[in-house]
Backbone:
């Protein structure tokens, strides 16, 4: 039983339980994709069925991670299969567990408002948006936003953070950003603004059906 219900893996060379950040990022990407598609379905065509199922899947997966073991969470299993050929990147399990507790709180609230109460409100929208932000930052950047709050509640030093951000190191040259790069980024933003202003009206026109294959009348309804 102790081997089944445990949080984190014991790995030689690490004095605390750890998790594989690569499979966590993969799982976060899968959950983000599922939640994003279901949110778009609800927002664009007012179909909340997929969103309700997505909330249940999200909450169940996070509960399994925290209260049983991450190794039995479906999305982490799938994430492990996806990145099985990549060398693992070990991170401390404690801060991940704390972050997933936050996920449980958000999931329970969202489940209550969306599934139990069958309601729509700015509250549920903010909760959903927060979940998407947390998942996106984990999947895209390897930044665990929930982990950032761990030191506020626990005095023990955070160990083995993704990218070794817990350790104070001098940035290498490849990590440094020059003023010329900043100016290029700002110039790119200005370029996008100019393009939007110039082509907004022409880009807003509904595309015509090039081959006349639209039998559903979708394009005609939009027009």
Residues:
């Amino acid at each position: 039983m102790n081997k089944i219900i445990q949080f984190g893996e014991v790995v030689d060379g690490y004095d605390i339980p750890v998790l594989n950040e690569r499979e966590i990022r993969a799982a976060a990407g899968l959950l983000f994709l599922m939640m994003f598609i279901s949110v778009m379905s609800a927002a664009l065509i007012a179909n909340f069925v997929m969103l309700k199922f997505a909330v249940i899947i999200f909450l169940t997966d996070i509960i399994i991670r925290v209260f049983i073991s991450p190794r039995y969470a479906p999305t982490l299993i799938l994430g492990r299969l996806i990145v099985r050929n990549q060398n693992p990147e070990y991170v401390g399990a404690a801060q991940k567990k704390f972050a997933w507790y936050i996920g449980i709180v958000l999931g329970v609230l969202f489940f209550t408002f969306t599934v139990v109460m069958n309601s729509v409100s700015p509250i549920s929208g903010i909760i959903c948006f927060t979940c998407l932000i947390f998942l996106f930052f984990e999947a895209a950047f390897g930044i665990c936003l929930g982990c950032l709050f761990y030191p506020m509640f626990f005095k023990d030093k955070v160990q083995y953070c993704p990218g070794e951000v817990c350790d104070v190191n001098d940035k290498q040259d490849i990590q440094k950003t020059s003023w010329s790069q900043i100016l290029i980024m700002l110039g790119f933003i200005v370029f996008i603004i100019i393009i939007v202003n110039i082509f907004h009206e022409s880009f807003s026109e509904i595309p015509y059906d090039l081959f006349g294959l639209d039998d559903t009348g979708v394009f005609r309804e939009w027009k």
Summary: The first strand starts at residue 18 and ends at 20. The chain is about 60% helix and 5% strand. The beta strands are 18-20, 90-92. The mean pLDDT is 87.
